[in-house]
Amino acid sequence: RCGNPSTFSNVHKFTVQDPYVVGSLKQFHADQPWIGVICDMGIEKSENTIASLSKAVQTGVVQAVVHGGDISYANDYKPAGSNAYVWQTYFDSVSQFASYVPYMTCPGNHESQFDFAGYNNWLPMPNASGSSFYHSFDYMGVHFTMFSTEHNFSNGSAQHSWIVTDLRQANGNREKVPWIVVVGHRPLYCSDLVLLKRCTEEAPVFRSYVEAVFNEYKVDVYINGHNHQYERSYPMVNGKATQKDYVNPKAPVYIVDGAAGNTESIDPTFLPEALAPWRAHHSDWLGTSWLRMRAGQQSLQLQLINSETDKVSDEFEIQRTAD
């Protein structure tokens, strides 16, 4: 707890897990914990996700939460100089899970107000990279590379050089930490119909910066938000699926996980399947959801959780057979 002699907060118990694989390496146990992943969550229309995720954390089901940008949506509230209360309101709400387990983030476009001052003040992440906007860590068998799509990551930039170095080192540490998940805010592959330019004009530019690096160092999954919906690809490279399953994938899987809930609502529109043959699954549900994952030595299991029912609405497992 924290406070002063006259006023203290409630007592919370904070737990930290091993950076390496937890539990069975080849077969998941029902009680093996998960890592939660959210993007695009604000103080409105997020109550179901916060309640669902908090329940999972407080019962030990989820042991860490990763947030891929667009945090609180303070910049959507006016006047611009008087919206600091939004950050406070947001953290009062997410304290139901963020005060129990690690809460690791990277920035999105909604944090750019006042040169990311709110983000930097509220969310000081590890800065071994030399920047507060991109960092990495190992947790429960997964290496997370958290980078900022809101700052320069083109070839030759400081962030790009860091991404290359980080992924090279992570790929050389597979024996201890077998999986690499990259989290950023903006999509590299997507099929949003309403915001199609994000997928057909912006995403190809971003891919030109990092897709070759992801492929070289065998990134397993890239997760982003920005689009307020959920979809996942087959393993893919250069705009094409390398296979229609997840056994010994030859390229990364790309997931849009932007349906945690915010003032801008959920977008259920997608390109038809014929125009996105690389897409394995998408959700046209108007409700909110969040993603969770857990790692074994040869399997990475991912599930989409319906925030209203706590039930699994999508799941898949990446399997890597022994060499």
Rough outline: globular
Alpha carbon gyration radius = 19 Å
Q: β content, as a range?
A: 25-35%
Low-pLDDT sequence parts = none
Explain how this protein is built.
The structure is a single chain. 22% of the residues lie in helices and 26% in strands. The strands form five sheets. It has a seven-stranded mixed β-sheet, with helices on one face. Strands 7-5-3-17-18-19 form a six-stranded mixed β-sheet, covered by helices on one side. It has 323 residues and is of the alpha/beta class. A hairpin with a 2-residue loop joins strand 1 and strand 2. It contains five helices and 19 strands. Helix 1 (47-58) packs parallel to helix 2 (84-98) and helix 4 crosses helix 5.
Quick description:
The protein contains five helices and 19 strands. The protein is an alpha/beta fold.
Brief descriptors of the model:
323 residues, alpha/beta, seven-stranded mixed sheet, six-stranded mixed sheet, 19 strands, 22% helix, globular
What is the fold's blueprint, element by element?
Elements: E1 3-4, E2 7-8, E3 34-38, E4 41-42, H1 47-58, E5 62-68, E6 71-72, H2 84-98, E7 103-106, H3 113-122, E8 135-139, E9 142-146, H4 158-171, E10 179-183, H5 196-216, E11 221-224, E12 230-233, E13 236-237, E14 240-241, E15 253-257, E16 279-283, E17 289-295, E18 299-306, E19 312-319
